[in-house]
Design a protein that fits this description.
With about 250 residues, the protein is mostly helical. The chain is built from 8 helices and no strands.
């Protein structure tokens, strides 16, 4: 019997990455999938994201120690992270962009722009200090995962009069645990190395990116939530990297 935190961490690793941790949820006797609470164990999601980020950060240090150019190291790091997550944030961003714009190709253009900014941010952080860049990659992965999960738990927002007599399931406890662990882990990783300015900037940038995606997706349908959540996660991830770079490069 695994401790609850370990069990929930393995669940989120299974759900959010392609890493083979544990078995898939069982089905009911009538072959219908068992209903699950999407926010169950959300407090452990940052730990699962940290493991994925740790693999990407390790890849960054590996490629850096092979004396590859910083641009190649940054690109390989992003590819590693995308592979670990099965390209879910990237593919979701493409679909979300196309759906929200109502035109094919917009999502691809948005993803390319985000990836270019992400590569440039990681490259700049490698020039600053490669081991520290690996830490920022881990934190960015955590923030991206948290933003994606928060979006899924809170969107689409509906006015109270549309809810009727049956209230929406509340995920307040799950959200509180998720945000608390994210803040604690993010602060613990960034504050000792980058001090308060970059740490605060990373949080603010990730939150701003999340809010922007929520605003853009205000007219979404329920079927759009997974893809818009992926876009929110990718935007928060890129914003975190860019904010830390901007602050550490400021004289």
């Amino acid at each position: 019997m695994l401790p609850p935190f370990v069990h929930d961490t393995l669940k989120w690793l299974r759900n959010e990455t392609v890493l083979p941790f544990g078995a898939a949820p069982s089905a009911a006797e009538d072959d219908e999938p068992i209903a699950t609470d999407p926010g169950a164990g959300a407090y452990a999601a940052p730990a699962a994201a940290a493991i994925a980020g740790l693999v990407a950060g390790g890849a960054l240090l590996l490629f850096w120690n092979m004396w590859l150019p910083p641009f190649a190291v940054a690109a390989a790091t992003i590819l590693t992270l995308a592979a670990i997550r099965g390209g879910r944030l990237e593919s979701g961003t493409v679909r979300a962009g196309d759906r929200l714009a109502g035109t094919s190709g917009v999502g691809t253009a948005a993803l390319v722009l985000l990836l270019l900014v992400e590569v440039a941010a990681i490259e700049g952080l490698i020039f600053y200090h490669a081991p520290s860049a690996a830490l920022v990659v881990i934190v960015a992965t955590i923030f991206g995962s948290t933003a994606s999960i928060v979006f899924r738990l809170t969107q689409p927002a509906r006015p109270l009069e549309e809810i009727g007599e049956i209230g929406r399931p509340s995920h307040s406890v799950a959200l509180q645990g998720l945000m608390l662990i994210t803040i604690v882990v993010g602060t613990a990783l960034l504050l000792p190395v980058f001090r308060i300015g970059a740490t605060a900037g990373a949080f603010v940038a990730a939150l701003a990116a999340f809010v922007i995606v929520v605003a853009l997706a205000k007219n979404q349908h329920a079927d759009d939530v997974p893809d818009c959540a992926a876009a929110a996660g990718k935007a928060a991830e890129v914003a975190t990297l860019l904010a830390v770079l901007a602050i550490v490069r400021t004289p």
